[in-house]
Design brief:
The protein is of the alpha+beta class. It has one domain. The chain contains 1 helix and 4 strands, in the order ββββα. Strands 1, 2, 3 and 4 form a 4-stranded antiparallel β-sheet that branches. A hairpin with a 2-residue loop joins strand 3 and strand 4. The longest helix is centred in the C-terminal third of the chain and has 18 residues. About 0% of the residues are buried.
Amino acid sequence: MTANPSQGVRIVRDGSLETTNAGRFALPLSVTQNGTELGVGRLILTFDTAAELHAELGRMLAESIPPTTPDERSET
């Protein structure tokens, strides 16, 4: 994958998180190839899979943020 959005296949978020009639979470996505839209869809997650994803993202974000020194932290 490259940083250039007009190269390769990309699946990107395409709207706000929704809930389905069954109470699941639906994340709208769009699929492009070399800058041309191929289609749209939704990633459907149960409560458990959404919780697992939330935990994994939290861990990855925590690992990618460099520690701050006390003077770099907000006073609020």
